[in-house]
Specification:
- By secondary structure, the chain is an all-alpha fold.
- The protein has two domains: 2-73, no CATH class; 91-313, MetI-like fold, CATH 1.10.3720.10.
- The chain is 78% helix and 0% strand.
- The chain is built from 14 helices and no strands.
- Helix 5 (87-122) runs antiparallel to helix 10 (224-252).
- The longest helix is centred in the first third of the chain and has 36 residues, at 87-122.
Length: 314
């Protein structure tokens, strides 16, 4: 197990380096001039040149990348151009809020996905077709459209759920307050992953239920519930892989949700930083999402390795 973990971590190093290169170059393609933003309107050319030299933007791209990567490796993510404060604290606090929303959405997605997938696999006719259609609708529904529908037709007419922010009781909300404020954004973010999980689980469970060992278990006189336990256990590996991928998707794919519901997460911070051409914040935010996705995949691989010994030897 230790050898497998070491191999997986060694494989992640070049991936993380490639992610850093892509993040650095992609952010450079964002239109706009950060120097003009920082200097303000009416600044002289001498002032702009001094800021350009101070920010290191007059150097070659490889030099800029190496200096940026060296700072990132020590935990220095730079200073926000628009807010003039350390980026590290901004993105870490925002990422923590995004993580809360992502975990909340993952719980809803896994619950909905397992229920719909199991119904579709075990009851292929009648109610199973309804479950399959529901998973397809959730998979194809745009997040921003779902968010607006929930706000207009559920939140505003009934006043059951808040439509903005993370808390209504100050800076230190309780768990129930956070769950209450986060229900609609979490449900909006959960629909697509729930559809993916439902389709994956339906396919995997249907395949397992048609295997010969299931018939053997039935022939031995095992009850339906015990047979289903064995079937669910054999369908777990593919399900865990898909859940891990969906968590990574939620960490980087809730920009629309956080923007619409004004959730103070990394998606909202990225939206604001891209709009204001705040390069240090944008780079740090995208990099954290990418690193989190890689680490989640490592955790998923380790979980699969503990469940299935064939993964450790592959």
């Amino acid at each position: 197990m230790v050898a497998f973990f070491c191999r997986r971590m060694a494989f992640a190093i070049p991936i993380l380096f490639g992610v850093a290169v892509i993040v650095f170059l992609t952010v450079k393609l964002i239109p706009g001039d950060p120097v003009a933003l920082l200097a303000g309107t009416g600044a002289s050319e001498e002032t702009k040149q001094a800021l350009t030299q101070q920010m290191g933007l007059d150097r070659a791209l490889p030099v800029q990348f190496w200096e940026w990567l060296s700072r990132v490796a020590t935990g220095d993510l730079g200073t926000s151009i628009s807010q003039q404060r350390p980026v590290f604290g901004m993105v870490v606090d925002a990422f923590a809020n995004t993580l809360v929303l992502a975990v909340y959405a993952t719980v809803l997605a896994v619950g909905l996905g397992l229920i719909l997938g199991a119904i579709a696999a075990l009851r292929p006719r009648g109610v199973g077709k309804i479950a399959s259609v529901s998973s397809s609708v959730g998979l194809s529904a745009p997040q921003y459209s779902v968010a607006l529908i929930l706000i207009v037709y559920i939140a505003l007419p009934t006043n059951l759920f808040p439509v903005s922010g993370m808390s209504g009781f100050g800076d230190d909300p309780g768990v129930l307050d956070t769950l209450w404020h986060g229900f609609l954004p979490a449900l909006t973010a959960a629909l697509v992953p729930a559809g993916v999980i439902a389709r994956t689980f339906r396919s995997s469970l249907s395949s397992v239920m048609s295997m010969e060992f299931i018939e053997a278990l039935r022939a031995r006189g095992l009850s339906r519930n015990r047979v289903l336990v064995h079937a669910f256990h054999n369908a777990t590996p593919s399900l865990i892989t898909m859940i891990g991928l969906q968590i990574g998707y939620l960490l980087g794919g809730v920009v629309f949700v956080e923007t619409i519901f004004n959730w103070p997460g990394l998606g909202l911070v990225l939206f604001q930083s891209i709009s204001s051409r705040d390069l240090p914040v944008t780079q740090a935010g995208v990099l954290i999402c990418a690193v989190a996705f890689v680490l989640i995949n490592i955790v998923v691989d380790m979980t699969l390795a503990m469940i299935d010994s064939r993964v450790r030897t592959s």
